[in-house]
Design brief:
The chain has 8 helices and 10 strands. The chain is α/β, with parallel strands linked by helices. The protein has one domain: Rossmann fold (3-Layer(aba) Sandwich).
Length: 236
């Protein structure tokens, strides 16, 4: 059985990464919609069997500067109302949270680099169970509130809302589980200004990617597989 997975992409180097071969192995045809330059409509968001909303260096609330965010949130909201499988990562998770009526705000601080994730009780019983205590890649300064009716799954000391789920079909991840550590140089160059402004040493992120990336990749694959199992088995 072949199904379609569409990824909404905001910058070229923040792509499906580790997730793409897992989707292909399950029979998904993957494609991208580069939303800053391609129109995103409710019809486009409703069409695929799986929608993945990826990260990016803008804030959900920056609609005056980046008007495409308005259309994107409307499109995502239409999909969520239809109860269709949706995965949001970083900015994508914030857009999903906002489409579900939750607040997304700038915190005035940055969480960038590899640091341990702590799961909540609900998180330990979820698809994220392999991530408890694992160093994941954080790269954000904004924070979402957990939407009404969603389960809060994970936290870090500085950011208590790191993941949420609505049933088995909607998952929001503040951290970058999809990021391929072997491609971290693309991130370091693409986000060079942000790293400099935040006082983050790219050399540290690079060395941590080498040290922690392989174990994270294994945990990420187990996590994505655990989430995709019920999504794949759901009727289309």
């Amino acid at each position: 059985m072949t199904r379609d997975a569409l990824a909404i992409r905001h910058v070229p180097f923040e792509d499906l990464g580790l997730l793409e071969p897992l989707l292909n192995a399950r029979g998904y045809r993957t494609s991208y919609l580069d939303v800053p330059v391609e129109p995103v409509t409710p019809e486009a968001a409703l069409r695929p069997d799986l929608l993945v909303v990826l990260g990016g260096p803008v804030g959900v609330y920056e609609t005056e500067a980046y008007p495409f965010l308005r259309d994107e949130k409307v499109a995502i909201a239409a999909r969520l109302r239809a109860g269709l499988p949706t995965l949001g990562v970083c900015l994508g998770a914030q857009l999903v949270a906002a489409a579900l009526g939750a607040d997304v705000v700038a915190t005035g601080r940055k969480e960038i680099g590899y640091a341990p994730l702590t799961l909540t009780d609900e998180g330990r019983g979820s698809a994220l169970t392999s991530l408890d205590g694992v160093r994941v890649l954080h790269w954000h300064g904004d924070e979402f509130a957990v939407p009404a009716g969603a389960a809060r799954l994970a936290e870090t000391p500085g950011f208590p809302n790191q993941a949420f789920a609505v049933g088995s079909h909607i998952l929001g991840l503040q951290f970058h589980l999809e990021a391929d550590h072997t491609q971290i140089e693309r991130w370091l160059v693409g986000h060079a200004h942000e790293l400099a402004a935040a006082g983050v040493d790219p050399g540290r992120v690079r060395s941590d990617a080498a040290a922690y990336g392989p174990a994270l990749a294994d945990a990420a694959r187990r996590t994505f597989d655990a989430w995709l199992d019920p999504v794949w088995l759901a009727p289309v």
